Every structure is written in C-alpha cells, then in structure tokens.
C-alpha cells in the first residue's frame, strides 16, 4: 500500500546558524517525488527495536521519508499519540538520546514516565530487570531503555510484553542512532533511498572508531550494509588491530563490501566521502576514549564535499573549528534525531492512521 502525502508545511525549515556553511539539507528531497509506503511502515507495529539487524533497506528509507515529512509539518495539532505512555528507563547516563525520545513523544502528544537514573529504580536495591519488566507491562505502552549491561535486553524481555526500543545496551548497539545517522545522509543525498543507477558514483565511508566496542559505530556500520550498492568501500581507522569483533566482521564479509583497517588517518582522509566519528567506547564497566591522534579540525586534509557525522557527545577528537564548515553534517544529524524517533514511535505504537491529509 502506497499513499501520497501533502505536508502543507506550517513550520519553516531551520536555517543553518548565522555565519555558517554547515550542511543542513532540506528534507523535502526525500518525499516530494516519492510515495510513502504505509504497509512497510506498518511492519513496525507492536515490534521491539533491538538491533540495526532488525531493519531492511526499505524500512530505513521509509522511516526517513516519514521523518522528513514530520520535519516539515507541525504534527502536534493532530495528537497522534494521545493516550499512549512511554517509559524512558535510562540505567546509564544520557543527554541527547533520552531528551530526544522524550521530546519526540511529547510533541506527538504522548506521555512520558521518565527514569533518568537507574539508581532511582528498584535495581538499586537489587531488583532484577526481569521483575522490572513485569511491572512495566502495567504502566505503559512502550519502554525505551538504555543500560550499561550488553545482556540487559535479554533479561528485561523475559517478562516484558510491551514493545522495547533499545537506546543503547553496553557495548552492544544503538539502532535508533543509526536511523538518525542515515536520515542525515539520506537528506544529504536522497538518491541513496533508491536503487543505484548503473555507473553512478559510490561513496567511500570512513569510520574513526571501533565497531566492536562502540555501539553507535556498530549500528551505523550494520545499517550501512543495507546500502551496499551505493558504497564503494569502508575504511576503519582504529588503534586496535581487530576493531570489528567476530560478528561484525562476518556481517561485512557476507555483504560483499570491500573494507580495510588502518591506524593512520592521514593516509585515507583525502579519499573519504563520509567520515563517521565517535570518541567513547563502553567496555563493560568503564569508558575508553579515542586516541587524540585521530583528531580532526578545519586544517585536516578532508576531501572537498566530504561530510562528517558524529553521534555526540564529543571530546577533543572533533574540533569546533569544523562547526561552521560545509563538512559539518553532525548538527543536522543531531537535529533530525527527534523526527526519526517521532516516525518510529508512531509506527511501533500503530498510530500511522493519525497522519493528516493522507489519500
């Protein structure tokens, strides 16, 4: 089932900051000449979102199209999540992800039960995640959880019967961050949402980080595999000899994408079209930061037209001198996360029929 959507935008697109060349792509390129596939989006209804492996190419592009529509539309007036309640259970510190989800839920007229600190739950007294999950069934329609333990999803899902969205599980994954990442890239190059024409140029992706222990990097890379026809190759620049981990390396190999590993950012930087950076790896009970040798600034030998993505928070690896350059796609990436999460929440909670002006 495909349908047309006339957004009739009431909210102007946010302009880039004053005196800035930062890249803020207009979202209209994703839907103006395309149809929104509600049948595809309906596949999310009632489903938990645990891994980037849960997505298909079409699902990612349709979520991005819906997010683009929501970015152009003041959706609050239509009350799409009226009567729905989400628990944001963050057993690990978060600024952007928690507030992004809560903003998305509230702008859709849903309600939030916010747990910003695991120390405020019964877990601080030794309560199991299994029992917490059982209680959540009575309190809400959806749980959005971040946890320090990689196996936390399996434990809470033993008893949880409402959908669960993984907002980061230890060194595991961060699938909705990957949706925000690719939404930024799809706005930047809308042709990525379509089959690649014969002879069209492909993108060379660069990753500064360690997919095996950086969950946002891992989910970004796994999602990139869905766009393999548009990708010439992936270069991972890491201080570790084996930055992938066995399971991710197998996924990349099975996808048939050329990849290489280096510890020298200077060698590859001039060739990269997209650079995905992260500084923080969660290693079970502590954080490790990327070596300062991998720092980028406005003087780095970046390819003309190349863009940088970063899930934030940043340390000194991404210098603020890049903020006002056209390489900066990371501000647009952060801004778009709310609309991606709005789209996903409407799909998972079965409220796509509340979209206005569908015909």
Describe the structure.
Helix 3 packs across helix 10 (330-348), helix 6 crosses helix 7 (215-224) and helix 6 (175-188) crosses helix 10. This protein has 359 residues and is an alpha/beta fold. The chain has a domain at 188-330: Aspartate/ornithine carbamoyltransferase (Rossmann fold). The protein contains 10 helices and 13 strands. The model is unreliable at 1-14 and 282-287 (pLDDT under 50). The strands form 4 sheets. The chain has a 5-stranded parallel beta sheet. Strands 4-3-5-6 form a 4-stranded parallel beta sheet, sandwiched between helices.
**Strand-residue proportion:** 15-25%
Number of strands: 13
Distance between the termini: 11 Å
Radius of gyration: 20 Å
Give the overall form: globular
* Structural class based on helices, strands and sheet pairing: alpha/beta
In CATH terms, what is the fold-level topology of the domain at 188-330? Rossmann fold
Task: Give me the CATH architecture of the domain at 188-330, please.
Answer: 3-Layer(aba) Sandwich
Task: List key phrases describing it.
single chain; 359 residues; alpha/beta; Rossmann fold; five-stranded parallel β-sheet; four-stranded parallel β-sheet; 13 strands; globular; disordered N terminus
């Amino acid at each position: 089932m495909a349908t047309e959507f006339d957004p009739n935008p009431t909210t102007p697109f946010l302009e880039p900051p004053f005196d800035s060349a930062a890249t803020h792509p207009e979202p209209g390129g994703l839907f103006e000449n395309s149809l929104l596939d509600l049948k595809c989006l309906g596949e999310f209804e009632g489903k938990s979102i645990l891994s980037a492996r849960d997505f298909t190419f079409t699902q990612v592009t349709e979520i991005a199209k819906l997010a683009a529509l929501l970015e152009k539309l003041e959706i609050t007036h239509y009350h799409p999540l009226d009567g729905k309640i989400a628990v944001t259970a963050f057993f690990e510190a978060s600024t952007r992800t928690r507030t992004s989800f809560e903003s998305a839920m509230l702008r859709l007229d849903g309600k939030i039960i916010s747990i910003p600190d695991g120390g405020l739950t019964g877990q601080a007294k030794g309560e199991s995640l299994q029992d917490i999950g059982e209680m959540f069934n009575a309190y809400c329609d959806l749980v959005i959880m971040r946890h320090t333990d990689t196996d936390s999803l399996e434990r809470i899902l033993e008893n949880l019967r409402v959908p669960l969205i993984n907002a980061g599980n230890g060194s595991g994954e961060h699938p909705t961050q990957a949706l925000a990442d690719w939404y930024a890239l799809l706005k930047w190059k809308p042709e990525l949402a379509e089959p690649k024409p014969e002879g069209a140029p492909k993108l060379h992706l660069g990753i500064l980080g360690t997919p095996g222990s950086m969950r946002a990097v891992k989910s970004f890379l796994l999602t990139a595999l869905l766009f393999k026809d548009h990708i010439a190759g992936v270069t991972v620049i890491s201080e570790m000899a084996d930055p992938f981990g066995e399971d991710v390396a197998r996924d990349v190999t099975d996808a048939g994408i050329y990849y290489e590993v280096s510890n020298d950012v200077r060698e590859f930087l001039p060739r990269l079209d997209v650079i995905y950076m992260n500084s923080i790896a969660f290693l079970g009970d502590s954080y490790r930061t990327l070596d300062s040798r991998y720092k980028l600034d406005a003087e780095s030998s970046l390819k003309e037209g190349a863009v940088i993505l970063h899930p934030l928070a940043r340390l000194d690896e991404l210098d603020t001198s890049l903020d006002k350059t056209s390489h900066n796609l990371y501000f647009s990436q952060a801004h778009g996360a709310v609309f991606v999460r709005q789209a996903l929440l409407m799909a998972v909670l079965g409220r796509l029929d509340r979209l206005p002006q569908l015909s």
